[in-house]
Each structure stands twice: as structure tokens, then as C-alpha cells.
Amino acid sequence: MIGMTRIESSGKRWRASYREQGELGLHEKRESTSEEKNARLEAQIHLLQAENELLKKIRMAEREGGSRVNLALGLRYKLIRTVIEKYHLRRMVSVLCEAAGVSKSGYYQYWSPSSIHRRYQNEQADEELRVHVNRAFHFKKRNKGARSIKITLEGQYRIFWNLKRIRRIMKKYDIVCPIRKANPYKRMMKATH
Fold this sequence. Notes:
elongated, mainly alpha, single chain, about 190 residues
């Protein structure tokens, strides 16, 4: 019905426009008003600004965390959310996720209502655990490490927890046991012998 020569010429025309303009050359050509062009260019500018700001925030957070420490996924998702809300880029989630190095499905799963509720419940449970760990940490006005806290919880309060759980709570809430430094005079004496 169309004819083979028409198909071949269309294919040549499409390949030539793709070589010249890329994907934009394949889109349907129609006359657009200057307002539409301005709106499209503004959207592109906002997207580039958002990507730039997101990458800056990620770099700054990695610098604060130490030398090239990988930023936690939750923090990356929060940064993406702030950038989207600031620039009103609801449809550009996939581009921002790609720029941040996370998956789009992971972003949506992180902000799902069930996931938010589960994080809230975990936070409440950790808050209760922190109270017990702090009580054992300051028992008899002596600061203790994770092993001593475990022994104190079992002996005094009849709470039996895994050592990893105690360490996780201590790390999360910055409960640090001071490490006794070696006596410098003894070290000098050993070195001079």
C-alpha cells in the first residue's frame, strides 16, 4: 500500500535526522510557540540545577563523613526528595536517582508509607533500648564498654541481649567508652631500660 521506495526514503530521512540532532531529531516536527520553547528550556535548566545541587550535597556529605565514605542510601534518598521539592521536579525522579547512584525503585520503596511506618517503629524500639544501655553504661558511675554493659544488663537488670545489638545502639547514639591511656612515665621507663 505504501510502497518500498517510500519506506526506504523515510528510513534514510530518519537516520539522517538522528545523526544530526540525536533523539530530538526523531520526534515529530511541529511548530511550537516561543512560550512552549521557553517552558521546555526552563524545565531543562531546573533539571540541570537540581542535578548540580544534588551532586554538591552528596560531595559535601561525603567530605563530612570522612575520606570518600559512601553516603548512606537513606541520606541519598532524603537529598533527592529535598531537591525535588525545591525545584518541583516530580517527573524527574529517574534522572536524579541516576545522578545520585541509587535505583528509582529503591527511592519509591524508601518513601512508601509502610516503610516510613516501619522506620518509625524501629526508631521507637531503639529509643527504649538506649534507655537501658545508658542505665547500664552509668551503673555505679563507671563508664563501660559493650561487653561490660552486656554483663551489667544480664546481672543487674535480667535483660539478655546480643552483644551486636548493644554495639549497634552504642554506635547509633554515640555512647563511647573512654579508653584508658597508658602511663607515659612507664613507657619512658621501659624505653630507657
